[in-house]
Amino acid sequence: MTAAPDAPATRTEGAPAAPLKTQIVIVGGGAGGLELAAKLGAKFRGRHFDIILVDRNPTHIWKPLLHEVAAGSLDANLDEVGYRSHAHRWGYRFFLGSMEGIDRENRQVIIAPMIDEDGREITRRHAIRYDYLVLALGSVSNDFATPGVAEHCIFLDSRTQADRFRQKLLNECLRVSAAISQSAETDAYVRVAIVGGGATGVELAAELYNAAAALSFYGLEVFDESRLKVTLIEAGPRILPALPEKLAEAAHKELEALGVRIRTGAQVVEATRQGIVLNGGETIDADLRVWAAGVKAADFLKDIAGLESARGNQLVVRATMQTTRDDRIFAIGDCCSYVPDGATRPIPPRAQAAHQMASAAFDNICRAIAKKPLRPFVYQDHGSLVSLSRFSTVGSLMGNLIGGRMAVEGALARFVYVSLYRMHLIAIHGWVKGLAMIVIGHVNQIIRPKLKLH
Questions:
Q1: What is the pTM of this model?
Q2: Are 90 and 71 in contact (CB under 8 A)?
Q3: What is the pLDDT of residues 185-237, one digit of tens each?
Q4: What does the angle CA 87 – CA 88 – CA 91 come to, to the nearest 5 degrees?
Q5: Contacts from 277-286 at CB under 8 Å and sequence distance 24+?
């Protein structure tokens, strides 16, 4: 166990002044960061504490849903959470901005200046004092320095990127629909190449066929899924390496039945405007190119402020979720690297890990404030689930209990998959509002359009 750091010192200027509030700053409003802010705000509301959440976006959306936003199956405007209204409800403060550095000596987070689209400065560079700092910055796609990927591929790390893909997809569908209207013999297709056979790539591939099948109801009468050509490219021997081989094989067959062309053992060496180039010289032609082949922490986190970082820029943390070189700085979720005792690999970057780490950080920050010994984090692997849109869901449950060998498919797997998002809603909104939003979500499925086309 790690001892709690010393209590923050009281500062004075001139005449004696009242002690400053204990300031807890959370950078990153993803699944873990937003949940932690709500918990801390609720616990310390009205007391001598100031809880601050910093994020570069004004709203939150659950990252595992971004493939649905990209395909148009989900209207993010209905599911996003505004940080300011959430902060008012839960007793914390929200600052819009991007962290660019940490001054550990003075316990300050450095926030970069905000510039509008005309190049005018909105806010200057400034510092936010902290007594405890939690970094929950999530992850970004790792292109492994592959030539052309940054210029010619779309990532799905944020809502902005998902919206961009959706608009490009709709434009391509309109182009093909117009070509078919002029000549039924045309060989025009919407060609999509997805690099990465993990959960994001597989889920996006299936969701695209779900969206294409619905487009004929929304003005594209001559367009359907037969005009969609999706290629899923995986460097490893099979897709979904995190799942048991039997389930990965079932997902493989389901995708092929939809029309997805799957290339395994295919190493990408370059991305161009025309498509994806493989190591054998073959080029897979594609109008849209999506990179979902791995994640890392943002580059600026590497050795930031002298903190220890891992190979993928993640900050190395101890079992208490404290960084190895500063007891006052915690890191949770995808931006941290924690290898449990006896394990050979860090905890994988999953939403369930971020949720559990947020709970552990909350408990340990409270204990540090109370000058109690901190508790070690114990990760409970509840398994993995992959949704193939409305077509199927596969996965394994209770990973820690039975080694992840409880395979589930079909209706049960779909129910558990949907329940994960419902649990997230309850975690950030509370039981009353969370349940109300779940009900509203069911109503929207009936009264709202199946696709977001604008």
A1: 0.87
A2: no
A3: 678 899 999 999 998 999 999 999 888 877 766 667 677 788 899 999 999 99
A4: 70
A5: 278/233, 284/193, 284/231, 284/233, 285/191, 286/191, 286/192, 286/193, 286/231
